[in-house]
Amino acid sequence: MSDSSSLLARPVIRRLSEQVVNRIAAGEVIERPAAALKELVENAIDSGARRIAILLEQGGINRIEVVDDGCGMTPDDLMLAVERHCTSKLRDETLVRIETLGFRGEALPSIGAAARLSVTSRPHGADSAWRVTVEGGLVSAPAPCAGAAGTRVVVEDMFFATPARRKFLKSPRVEGGHADITVRRLALSVPHVAFRLQLDDRVVFDLPGQDMAARVAAILETEGADGMLPVEGVKGDLVLSGFACGPSVHRATAAGQILLVNGRPVVDPVLRTAVRVGYRHVIEHGRHAVVALSLTIPPDMVDVNVHPAKTELRFADPAAVRGLVIGALGRALGGGAGVAGVRPGLLQSRTAGPARIWYPPADPAPARVVAPVFAAPGPAAISGGRLDLGDRPAARVLDPVLPAVPPVAGAGKGAVPLEDEGAVLADPADYPLGAPVAQVMGTYVIAVSGDGALVLVDQHAAHERLTHERLRAQYLDGTLRAQRLLLPEVVTLPRGQAEAVLSRAGTLSALGVEIEPFGGDAVLVRALPALLGTDDPAALLRDMAEEMAEDDLADADEVQALDGRLDAILARMACHGSVRAGRSLTRAEMDALLRDMERTPRAGTCSHGRPTWLKLSRADLETLFGRR
């Protein structure tokens, strides 16, 4: 009887205490020290601060201190600030025109419910500062104290009141890394505000108020890159601006992508996907681009009240946003090889410390420099006639004959001057990849640029990109011409790949590849694109079949992923139709290759995202040889 009565017992609903409610709510807002730091820095920015100083101890687990010179708060403001759902940032109750980073009124109460919080503030012109403390949700009365104009917030013993959350924190190094990324995103949203971040005894950065370009370079640490590409785009009421690194600068994670919407740092899947698609043609698979983009959108077209952390949002027209970002990045990355931001270098990092090898100083009386044009040196200038063991040198030195195209002027040392000073010179800026001087290993073209730097070109990777872009342009223009094979070739494929290829016969026909079933798992190839001129249709079809078999779309004609799939197929086709490694090139072919690379969009990387060329400046060579 007692058992049945216990089963029928109705649970009693009771009202939770305010402290428990605050601790539950704090778990949504304050996930880790970086989340608390984000809320505090947002409050400092919203207060109109011109300088914000941040100090973290043990990654913020032990202590977070944020000091700003903003408007400050009165004692009455302080008491309201630590009360839940009290804010000065909402002009009305529609939650539409939100112009500040914070607006929910949950940050300080949530932090005070999970940690020991102290807020000291003094309005400009006030006689003294006032301090209020909150420990585990218990609020003290404001007390006068000494303090500079502005606000100083100290958070200690993070999650001491919620031990279950504290034990799930990572190491101080990991938590400090999350805090670092958080501050960088916020610092980029307000470049006019000076920021200082200190982790324990190490100053991570101390930045003055800057323009956007300087702040992007400092925050993303791209000062060593060869320029940031400006990104601009307008689509109706949407405005996109910012900077993007070229394909040669990439990282293993997306931490180098800072995305702002109306000045608010966000982690949005629509924008992340658009960035990935924008770099799809030029960056290696699995790597992440480095960008800083700012989207301005009417407030009624975006909802920022999606998550307590305010890093997620919803767009009224996500397709328009995605198209704007992809198009703007495509235009920024569409320059030919040799332009700023698409300049791969052999040395990704410099060796610290002075050189250990002493070299005599340079001649203090430099010889007279004649304005030169590039001409290939004689055989002895590169490698000598023969090696000591009687083997032929690996370098194919070009004959000392000027190319048919206008010669490239060499303004710096390292160029070979001609005796004829009356030669017609071209502007080196028009030929950033310089003039070819040799071919080594049957694969790499050596050139000298107008500033005297050494340029190395992978002939296969470069021609692969050129062929890819020509195929794509012809396909988009509807001028891609097929060439029928004299003898159609039968290719046997695994069953899954054969079905994938035949199901897309119509798409392949538009690409110049005509196929038809030949019974079982065999496919008959009747025509290939005339641009390729490949003599191995079987290898090409097998590669294309592998590419299509990886497509897991249920509908073969789904438009959303059609462009990406076709581009991947074109990349496979281009690989088969490009100049192979090991093929000897004439001077005219080398020069034409360099000039085509300079004119062709995205020619800084091949279709697989690998660099097509490397540049070694004087500084790079001196570092390699231990001169610096």
TrEMBL record:
PROSITE patterns: DNA_MISMATCH_REPAIR_1 (PS00058). Residues 436-585 form the MutL C-terminal dimerisation domain. One of its GO terms (biological process) is mismatch repair. Residues 216-334 form the DNA mismatch repair protein S5 domain. GO terms for molecular function: ATP binding; ATP hydrolysis activity; ATP-dependent DNA damage sensor activity; endonuclease activity; mismatched DNA binding. SMART domains: DNA_mis_repair, MutL_C. Keywords: DNA damage, DNA repair, Endonuclease, Hydrolase, Nuclease. GO terms for cellular component: mismatch repair complex. InterPro entries: DNA_mismatch_repair_CS (IPR014762), DNA_mismatch_repair_MutL (IPR020667), DNA_mismatch_S5_2-like (IPR013507), HATPase_C_sf (IPR036890), MutL/Mlh/PMS (IPR002099), MutL/Mlh/Pms-like (IPR038973), MutL_C (IPR014790), MutL_C_dimsub (IPR042120). Pfam families: DNA_mis_repair (PF01119), HATPase_c_3 (PF13589), MutL_C (PF08676). Belongs to the DNA mismatch repair MutL/HexB family. This protein is involved in the repair of mismatches in DNA. It is required for dam-dependent methyl-directed DNA mismatch repair. May act as a 'molecular matchmaker', a protein that promotes the formation of a stable complex between two or more DNA-binding proteins in an ATP-dependent manner without itself being part of a final effector complex. This is DNA mismatch repair protein MutL.
